[in-house]
Amino acid sequence: MKRLKTFLICGHMAAMAVALVAANAVAEPVYRWVDGAGVVHFSSSPAAGAQAVRIDPRAPAAMDAPGITALTDFSRGYEKDAAARNKVRQAQLTAAAEREASCAQARQRISQMETATARRLAVVQPDGGRARMTQPEFEQRLAAVQAQAKRDCRS
Fold first, then answer.
1. Which of 81, 103, 126, 135 has a beta carbon 3.0–4.6 Å from 152's, enabling a disulfide?
2. Where does the pLDDT of residue 39 fall: very low under 50, low under 70, confident under 90, or very high at 90 and above?
3. Distance CA 21, CA 107 (A)
């Protein structure tokens, strides 16, 4: 029990010492001045034209500073640009997937048409009936499918 009391007393004394050191650090004056190049300087020793300023270490940095505002505006612009780039990229990926599917379909049709002849393929008539494809119809459809494959299959 005696050790606990000693420990608590030492702990309180250490906390008070830290508080006193912190109070002295805050109480020390800080000087601010702007040099010929327009750069702002802070120091614990005064320079020519320096003004003493009070700095509260617990206060947050000012968010209305021009550099912070410009950085915030840049960040917002970058986020909007990134969203637009992502949207464009997604559209490109969708178009590429659609082209690839169309290419596969065209290649499959070409394969089917090349193994069959016009006499073996039927077409649906306007009245719903079926009729055999003529040789010119076959060649016309084959050319159309080959053109689709050429357009959609870029390899």
1. 103
2. confident
3. 82
Q: What is the DSSP string of 67-106?
A: HHHHHHHHHHHHHHHHHHHHHHHHHHHHHHHHHHHHHHHH
On whether the CB atoms of residues 44 and 30 are closer than 8 A, the answer is yes
- Strand-pairing partners, residue 32, are 42, 51
Summarised one tens digit per residue, pLDDT across range 53-104 is 776 666 555 555 566 666 677 777 778 888 888 999 999 999 999 989 988 9
Place of tokens 């509260």: 56
The CB-side HSE value for 34 (13 A sphere, CA atoms) comes to 2
Q: If you count them, how many residues does the chain have?
A: 155
Q: How many CA atoms lie within 13 A of 5 on its CB side?
A: 2
Residue 52 to residue 32: CA distance in whole angstroms? 6
Reading the block at residue 130, the tokens are: 């079926």
Per the structure block, which two tokens stand in for 147?
């053109």
Q: Rounded to an integer, what is the distance from CA 47 to the centroid of its chain?
A: 46
H/E segment holding residue 142? helix 135-152
Sequence letter at residue 155:
S
> Position of tokens 């050790």?
3
